Amino acid sequence: MADSIDQIFVNLKHWLVGFAPEPWQGLASIVISIAALMGVFATLFAVTTILERKGLGRIQNRYGPNRVGPFGFLQPAADGIKALIKEDLVPRSADKVVHFLAPLVLVIPPFLVLSVLPIGRNMTLVDFDAGILFFFSVGAIMELSVFMAGWSSRNKYSLLGAMRAIAQMISYEIPLILSSVTVIMIVGSLSLNEIVAAQGGFNGAFPDWFVFTPWGFAGFVLFMIAATAESNRSPFDLPEGESEIIAGYYIEYSGFKFALFFLGEYIGLFAVSGLGITLFLGGWGAPLSFLQFIPSWAWFFAKLLALIAVFIWIRGTLPRLRQDQLMNFAWKFMLPMTLLNIVAAAVWHFMLPLPAAARWIACSAIIIGSYILLGRGLMERRKIGRRTYRFAE
Amino acid sequence: MTISFAIIAVVIIAASVAAITLRHLIHCSLALVVAFAGLAAAYLQLNAQFVGFAQLLVYVGAVSILVVFAILLTRSGENPNEEIFSKTWMAGAAVVVAVLGVLVWAITNSEVVKREPSPATEVTVRGIGDVLMNRFVLPLEVIGLLLTAALIGAVIIAMSDRQERKMK
Amino acid sequence: MSNPLVGYLLLSAFLFAIGMAGALTRRNAILVLVGIELMLNAANLNFIAFWRFGPNPEALTGVMFVIFSIGLAAAEAAVGLALIIAIYRHYKTTSVDEMDQLKG
C-alpha cells in the first residue's frame, strides 16, 4: 500500500503514456514529465509568494495580504492577472532585442536544472552521470541573463545592479561548488541519484545523512549561505537594494516580464534548495526509520518547504550587507572555510578504519579550529566599539 | 548527417559570424555565447557529456563574463561611428580564404574520413576521473599551477596602475 | 561522405576560418581575443570528433586534451583581457591600429 502511494506518480505517468501510439511514447513520457515538473514548481512559486508575504508580515507585526480569497490566499492569482494586463514598457533608448530576451534567458535555466533533481524514488527526469556538473553549468547562464537585463535597459541603476549581481554571483559560486565537492568526494559520483542512495541507510532510528557528520554540517551551512547569495536573497540582496539602486537590474521591466524575473528567482531558489536537500539532507529519504511509510516525494517537498521557511525567516530577520562586507565574507571567510572543509572530508574518509570517536574529534577539530582562526582573523584589525544609538531629536 | 547536427552547425556558424561582424561589441559577446553553447551541444552529440558541461561552465559562465567586463571597462562599445575593421583587413581576409581553402581541400581528400567510424563508447565520469588521476596526473598538476599563475598574473597586470600611484 | 566525421571536420574548419577572420580583420583588441577563442574552440571540436570516430575511443585522449585545453583557454582569456585593460589604461585605446608605439 505504502509502496503504491510512493510510486503513484510514476505509475500514473506509465498509464498515461500507454494511451499514446507506440512510436510517440518516448516523446509523450518526456512531455508529461516536463509538464508535471513545471506545473508543480510554478504552483509552488505561487504558494511561496503568498507564504513569504504573510510570514514577513507576521515577523514585522502586520497582517500581510488578507483581502483576496480566504485569508488572502488567492493573492498570487490577483497578482498574476495584474501583471498580465499591465502595459509593457520598453525604454526608448533600450536595446530592444536584448531587453526582450533577458527575462526569457533568466527563466529557462532554473527550470532546466530542476530536471536533474531526484524529487522522489524513481522520480528523476534525466539521470545524468554528471548531474551536479549539469546543475552548475546551466546555472551559470543566469549570470549572463542578469547582465543582459541590466545592460540593455540603458539605465545607470540597472547597470550598477547588474554589475553588483554578477560580482556577487561569481564570488559565491565558488564556495557553492566547493562545498558540494565534499559530498562528491565521499560518495565518489557526480550522479545525484547515487548521492541520494548513499544517504539511504539508517543508523538505529536516525538516517545516514551527510548533515550529521562534521564536514557535512559545515558544508551544509556554507552551502546554504552561498545559495542565499546566489539567489540574491536577503541579506545578500544588494543587487536589488531598493534604498540605493531602486530595484537593480529589473528596474526597467514592467508587467509580465517583471513577473518572469520574479518567477526565475524563485525557481532558482527552489532548485538550489533542492540541490542542498539532495546533497546533505538525504534527498527524498525519511528522517526517521519508522517514518518510511510516508511517500518519498512528500519528504522532498516537506524538506523544500522547511528550507523555504528558513529563507523567509532569514529575510525577515537579517539586515542587508554592505558591498565590501559581502566581498570580504566571500573571499576571506567562505572560500578558505570550504577548502578546509574539503580537507576535513578527506581526513574523515581516510580515518574510516579507525573508531568513530577519533574521526569525529579529528574532523571537528579541523573545522572548529579553522572557523575560530578565520573568524578571528577577520575581526582582528577592526576596532569594535560599543554600539551607540542616535535618536531623532 | 542528421537533422540535429545540421541545426547545431547552422547555429554555431551563424553565431560565430555574428560574433565577429556585429558593430556593437556587447552584441558580439552575446553572439559568442550562443556559439559556445552550440559547441557544448555538439559535444553532447558526440557523446562527450562531461566536456560539454565543462564547456558551458567555463565558457558561458566565466569567459563570456570576462569579455563583457573587459568591454565595459575599456569603454569599447561607446563609439558607434568608428570603423570596425582594421586598416589591413584585405590582407587578413586573403589569408583567411587561403587557410579555409587548404583546410577544406585537406579534409575532403583525406584518407581518414574514408575509414569506418568506430561505434559509440560509454564514457563515465568515473572513467574520466581515473584517467585524470593516473595517466594524466602530471598535466593536471601543471594546469593547476598554470591557472594559479594566470590568476595572480591577471590580478597584478590589471591593478598595476594603482600601485604606481601609491609609490609616487 | 557517409562518415559523420566529415561534417564535424568541415564545421570545425569553417569555425576556425571565422575565428581567424575575426582575429585578423577586426580593429578592437577584445574582438581579436574573441577570434582566438573561436579558433581554440574549433581545435577542441576537432579533438572531440576524432576521439569519437577514431580507432580507439576508450583511451579518452581526445577528451583529456579538450579538458586541459578548456582550462588553458580560461587562463588565456583572463591574462589576455587583463593585458588589454592595462593597455587601455596606458594608451586610452583598444584599437590594434593605434597600438603602434614600436613602429620605427
Give me a quick take on this structure.
The complex is a heterotrimer of chains A (393), B (168) and C (104). Chain B has 168 residues and is mainly alpha-helical. Helices cover 74% and strands 0% of the residues of chain B.
Q: If you had to describe this structure to a student in words, what would you say it looks like?
A:
The complex is a heterotrimer of chains A (393), B (168) and C (104). Chain A is an all-alpha fold and 393 residues long. Helices cover 66% and strands 1% of the residues of chain A. Chain A is built from 15 helices and 2 strands. Chain A has helices at 2-6, 8-17, 25-59, 75-85, 96-114, 131-139, 141-152, 156-187, 192-198, 214-230, 242-245, 255-280, 296-317, 323-350, 356-379, and strands at residues 202-203, 206-207. Chain A is globular. The model of chain B has no long low-confidence stretch (mean pLDDT 83). In chain B, helix 1 (3-21) packs antiparallel against helix 2 (25-45). Chain C has 104 residues and is an all-alpha fold. Chain C is built from 3 helices and no strands. In chain C, helix 1 (4-25) packs antiparallel against helix 2 and helix 2 (29-53) runs antiparallel to helix 3. The longest helix of chain C is centred in the C-terminal third of the chain and has 31 residues, at 61-91. The chains are: A mainly alpha (393), B mainly alpha (168), C mainly alpha (104). Chains B and C meet through helix 1, helix 2, helix 3, helix 4 and helix 5 of B and helix 1, helix 2 and helix 3 of C.
